[in-house]
Design goal:
This is Amino acid/amide ABC transporter ATP-binding protein 2 (HAAT family). Keywords: Amino-acid transport, ATP-binding, Nucleotide-binding, Transport. Pfam families: ABC_tran. Residues 4-229 form the ABC transporter domain. With 229 residues, this protein is α/β, with parallel strands linked by helices. Helices cover 35% and strands 27% of the residues. It is built from 9 helices and 10 strands. It is globular, with a radius of gyration of 17 Å. The protein binds adenosine-5'-triphosphate (ATP). Residues 13, 16, 18, 36, 38-44 line the site of adenosine-5'-triphosphate.
Length: 229
Amino acid sequence: MTLLTMEGITAFYGHSQALFGVDLTLAEGEVLALMGRNGMGKTTTIRTLTRLLPHRDGAIRFDGHALAGLPPHRAARLGLGLVPEGRRVFAPLSVEENLIAAARPGPWDMARVTALFPRLGERRAQRAGSLSGGEQQMLAIGRALMTNPRLLILDEATEGLAPLIRAEIWAAIHRLKDETGLSILVVDKSLKELAQVADRAVILEKGRTAWAGPMADVTQDLADRYLGV
Ligand code: ATP
């Protein structure tokens, strides 16, 4: 079943156009990699999906609902679980308070989140602001899971983290895919890691969908052409 369809999406920052026609579809249970060089529109696409930025043309359908005109909190309630770029957690609150504040009914609760990220259990009473960058990222993912999303959206979740912590985050993403079948939209710079977890890929070039297909078909040629690696 198709969970998400974005068709012909355009978007602007003031008078400056950032998206010129983004198309993507995501099936239930699928891990989709959204790729492209810096500034090609990945974060802006995610912002239109989560309603942090309105789109101008095109249509977004999520789980049978048209998203046009919905405010972000209503879109979140439909099951869009965003882990934003730059991992925003509530610094003065404890780990536990951060998780509880995000909670919505469903299978994901404190016990399940701390089983996925044992460090969060160990640091349950600690102020979020005093966690390491990697632990804050785990907390940001934990918060999104506590909302019991239909779609988990990870925008550069491993950015700026030490290799060992990065590996822990990727391991968690693999577990989410293999053990829970959660639908995931993932933006990340590591083609190698994406190749191991994503089912399909969408490549953006200058605010447009330039290529879409199975992750296995993202060849070195394609990567050279669109990703500059
Ligand atoms: P990155 O990997 O650098 O985050 P990206 O693919 O996510 O890149 P976007 O951040 O979506 O790209 O940026 C798409 C375009 O929109 C770029 O040309 C960027 O300069 C522009 N842009 C992004 N944010 C803003 C903003 N707040 N105001 C004006 N222009 C913006």
